[in-house]
Amino acid sequence: MQGLMSQYPLTLTHIFNRAERLFADKGVATVQAGGIDRITYGEWAQRTRKLATVLDELGISPDGRVATFAWNTARHLELYFAAPCSGRVLHTLNIRLFPDDIVYIADHAEDEVVFVDRSLLGVFWPLVDRLSTVKHVIVMDDGVPEEVPDDPRVQDYETLLAAASPAEFPVLEDENQAAAMCYTSGTTGHPKGVVYSHRSTVLHSMGALVVDAAAVSEKDRVMPVVPMFHANAWGLCQAAVMAGANLVMPGPKMQPAAIAELMEGEKVTLAAGVPTIWMGVLPELKGRDLSSLRDIVCGGSAVPKSLSEAYREQVGLPILQAWGMTETSPVATTGRIKSQFADASDEELADLRAAQGTPIPLVELRIADPATGEELPWDGEARGELQAIGPWIARAYYNDERSDDSFTEDGWLRTGDVATISPNGYVRLVDRTKDLVKSGGEWISSVELENAIMAHPKIAEAAVIGIPDEKWSERPLACVVPENGEEVTLDELREFLAERVPKWWLPNDLEIIEEVPKTSVGKFSKKTLREQFAERKATA
Amino acid sequence: MQGLMSQYPLTLTHIFNRAERLFADKGVATVQAGGIDRITYGEWAQRTRKLATVLDELGISPDGRVATFAWNTARHLELYFAAPCSGRVLHTLNIRLFPDDIVYIADHAEDEVVFVDRSLLGVFWPLVDRLSTVKHVIVMDDGVPEEVPDDPRVQDYETLLAAASPAEFPVLEDENQAAAMCYTSGTTGHPKGVVYSHRSTVLHSMGALVVDAAAVSEKDRVMPVVPMFHANAWGLCQAAVMAGANLVMPGPKMQPAAIAELMEGEKVTLAAGVPTIWMGVLPELKGRDLSSLRDIVCGGSAVPKSLSEAYREQVGLPILQAWGMTETSPVATTGRIKSQFADASDEELADLRAAQGTPIPLVELRIADPATGEELPWDGEARGELQAIGPWIARAYYNDERSDDSFTEDGWLRTGDVATISPNGYVRLVDRTKDLVKSGGEWISSVELENAIMAHPKIAEAAVIGIPDEKWSERPLACVVPENGEEVTLDELREFLAERVPKWWLPNDLEIIEEVPKTSVGKFSKKTLREQFAERKATA
User: Do A6 and B395 count as a contact with CB atoms less than 8 A apart?
Assistant: First the structure.
């Protein structure tokens, strides 16, 4: 028997119409070179409709890819809606990727046009002749006096908009139609493309409005510090438009002092960024009035307990950790404290906040043995690969043969993260699957071992990789960066670790290195270390 | 181009699994004859799985209708999930309908089994031999010593559950599969059946978790006073299970004093009921500790400004009005105050709260001229029929030829309500379309005219209906119930109204009546009045 409910499709046009009709007086503040630009959703909606006409007039295909190379701005938000609401596909290019990767993904997605912030022309323009499908480069003038190339492909955003009439968006019948794509920079091989649908984006936005998730409401002033080219700024832009919340966009001014000033000046209620951002911003918040602030959301990599506690002590607000990845739209868990912990001590709460939190509605999680795929219990002890499924979780990569490796036969995403899940549903990441060290049939968490090593007062940074061992299959190699001028020996390290980790985790091998190599987005690149020490064998 | 997101269907099984896994320690408190029964979601989930086995063992068809005739209880919540999660369809029978209507809808839906609270056997059992498709009557013993009939159709709920093993729920591939049905008692003809899908129910539940809607969270203790047989208790039961909120169920104890005691004793945070309930409960709340309470939700019919203000003055919390109907799952609007009114006066706020509020995400509304169907502006002045569309809005009635009258060609629900919508999206109901009086090509709102009449100090109740007029097509007839012992004349009434309504609204016809006839759910029955005065013609 079928339900008799409206076959109303879930599309971004609904979110757009909602803001245009219900929240015309709310809007977006964007930092530009000359100061703060303000626009209401009423004006924004008119401009977004004109932008759709511009896409038509540029001759972009009905489902053509519309690329952006831009900071967080109101104009970027116009593109976020004009592309999908006109049936096209938004493609946010990550400005921080290596040039070869940018060229690869623009070609792979078959981008037809790129919208570039003027301040980013210096990064973007040198690549343009390598992009085989891009016919137009539209420059969005943010007041930074980069030279605009005299080239037939180049046009000015505002000039085009001024000449266009506002479009009526077509009715999109199929909610599974693509709305946007974003490439994720794997640590091996080319980046892989994730394709969001209208349905997934609308549902993810609803998720962000849920109280126990990000709780975005009409009363909020939401500041995504996380870039709009990085996993959709965690969906906060679409969520704010849906809720009618004001948006505060930092534009190109991503320096800690500028962020701190904006938080106070714009009375931001919810701000979201990666740990590095919040580490930098904290000292700049001293003495500021942050009474409007209700949530500092942090994700992208694990949030150190010390950072959250430092915020709690100085700002009066601990960090709210969230977990997800490009493939999960991205929000899958949030670290809200359940009511059962109402009487927990500060220390217990700090420990709980250091976990990645519990799944939000419509997301399902499980952990599985990395070798056998067997599902593991939620006992807070068993470590397994974290797998996810739900309406905003990817089921495949775009035109990519590597999809089979990343999804299980029953359709779950293999996140590559290793986690425990407590009986009450708190996920705690302990490693990446490919970084686990398999020793004698058991798994050593490289992250936990690194954390133990970095607790040593003479050690600044450390990374652990597995190296081949005849008897145990693999053994850990500790790659260590000593504090300035210090020396560290293997014996001293083993002695320090003896009380901190199981005995069979103790490394027999130590390498002193100058620094831990990093990926383009600032994470430890163990791939580089593995290449560097490819010949190394474990000491018996 | 298609999105590459998981084809994960939106089903109630997800909500069920979520509570079972993440919120096993939270649960439901139910008032029964012997006191308060408490059950955790962990226990509830096990019982719900056993109940699915019971449905199998009773031989209920794979998509058979499972009827309930019951108060708000944890057992009723077991049925809310066991039926749809096993692929069947829950059918909540309204215990307050006239017997003929109950018989009609049970037959029309082809109910195979009815689960009856023991305390309701006195109402239900006299009908049983008229029900042509019902093979089983399962009695849920709530401790009220009604006689249980000695009949082969009758079995005891707990006995069946005790003998059953917990079922694994099947994977439901189609989110548009029917999950539940509920009949709406129109004022003309038989009740009409609305069929909810898994998708509509899941999305409506998400809607209830949104901050600017009901904002149900894990920290809540939710008390649906609105019955589970009345438009799904406004979806609060499924929403609470999804959020992991505790539920407080009043069972058969619906008296104001019992409700008030429960609100205090169970530290209820959110309570929901129709205006009549809250009128009765208010005096009982005097002197009680209601510090946990954050929202008193009210709907079903317009909330008088005076009632909301009385709550604000006595309890410190105005009433939160919501609007919807069985066909809208039911929540379509909520009366949250937008941030633009942060500086409004108490009077302005009271006036705003007397409106039905703004549409929640995924619901679209419009108003249309009742005669021409032309869409009308959102200017707070134009009065038109309120129409709705969205993923939890019905598109047809179940096996009913009257569907065509209630839905537009482009798929919108014709609510039959007449409303204005302000530029900022606040809906304000002014009448029912069928109660409008069409005079000289213009519409007179019967409700507004009634309110003006009832403001007269000598008048207790009044209802206005249209009667034929040769010149004006229709004119209003004022049907008036004077206060005890008072007399009211037409001249006196016209004089009183002259300053309160447009001149052409002034009635030329008055009927003094003993009381305004009511429907089975307590609303003014203008249908009865129209029948009573069918021969009446307007005075020139």
Answer: yes
**Considering the domain boundaries, does residue A338 fall inside one?**
no
Q: Structural domain of residue A237, as residue ranges?
A: 7-254
CB atoms within 10 A of CB B98: 13
CATH at residue B87: 3.40.50.12780
B462-485 pLDDT tens trace: 999 999 998 888 999 999 999 988
CB of B422 within 8 Å of a chain A CB? The answer is no
Closest CA to A39 of A23, A56, A16, A55: A23
CA dihedral of residues A443, A446, A449, A451 (deg, nearest 10): -140
Residue from the list A209, A338, A339 with its beta carbon closest to the beta carbon of B211:
A209
State residue B438's pLDDT score. Answer: 87
Nearest to A1 among B178, B194, B203 (CB): B178
Chain A residues with beta carbon closer than 8 angstroms to that of B205: 361
Cα separation, B285 vs B306, in Å, equals: 17
C-beta atoms of B194 and A339 within 8 A: no
pLDDT of B127: 97
From CA A398, how far away is CA A110, in angstroms rounded?
Answer: 12
CB contact under 8 A, A210 and B207: no
* ipTM surpassing 0.85: yes
B278 is catalytic: no
pLDDT digits (tens, 9 = 90+) for A227-236: 999 999 999 9
Q: Please tell me which residue, B59 or A517, carries the higher pLDDT value.
A: B59
Give me the residue from B3, B178, B219 closest to A3, CB to CB.
B178
B-proximal residues of A, 188-217, CB under 8 Å? 194-200, 202-203, 205-207, 209-212, 215-217
Q: Catalytic residue at B234?
A: no
Residue of A nearest to B42 (CA): A424
Q: What is the CATH number of the domain that holds A478?
A: 3.30.300.30
Which A residues, 115 through 154, put their C-beta within 8 Å of a C-beta on chain B?
none
pLDDT tens, residue by residue, A153-174 = 999 999 999 999 999 999 999 9
Please count the CA atoms within 13 angstroms of the CA of A503 that sit on its side-chain side: 0
Flag if A425 and B21 touch (Cβ within 8 Å).
yes
Local structure of A89: helix, strand or coil? strand
A339 contact B CB<8A: yes
- Answer with the one of A204, A229, A254 that is the final residue of a domain: A254
- Does residue A341 surpass a pLDDT of 80? yes
Q: Are A247 and A81 in contact (CB under 8 A)?
A: no
Q: Do A395 and B6 touch (CB under 8 A)?
A: yes
Q: Rounded CA gap, A443 and A68, in Å?
A: 42
Q: Would you say residue A521 has pLDDT above 70?
A: no
Residue A18, chain B, CB below 8 Å: the answer is yes
Does a structural domain hold residue B146?
Answer: yes
B347: Cβ contacts below 8 Å, ≥ 6 apart: none
Q: Is residue B406 in a domain?
A: no
**For position B186, what pLDDT does the model report?**
63
Residue at a domain's end among B204, B238, B254: B254
The structural domain count of chain A equals: 2
Instruction: Judge whether A108 lies within some domain.
Output: yes
Instruction: Give the pLDDT of residue B157.
Output: 98
A-proximal residues of B, 294-333, CB under 8 Å? 329
Per-residue pLDDT at B353 = 94
Of B71, B412, B443, B505, which is the active-site residue? B443
Give the N- to C-terminal CA distance of chain B in Å, as an integer.
67
Tell me the per-residue pLDDT of B173-227, one tens digit each, with 9 for 90 and over.
999 999 999 999 765 679 999 999 999 999 999 999 999 999 999 999 999 999 9
SS3 readout for A416-464: EEEEEECCCCCEEEEEEHHHCEEECCEEECHHHHHHHHHCCCCEEEEEE
Quick: pLDDT tens for A109-120.
Answer: 999 999 999 999
Q: Do B197 and A5 touch (CB under 8 A)?
A: yes
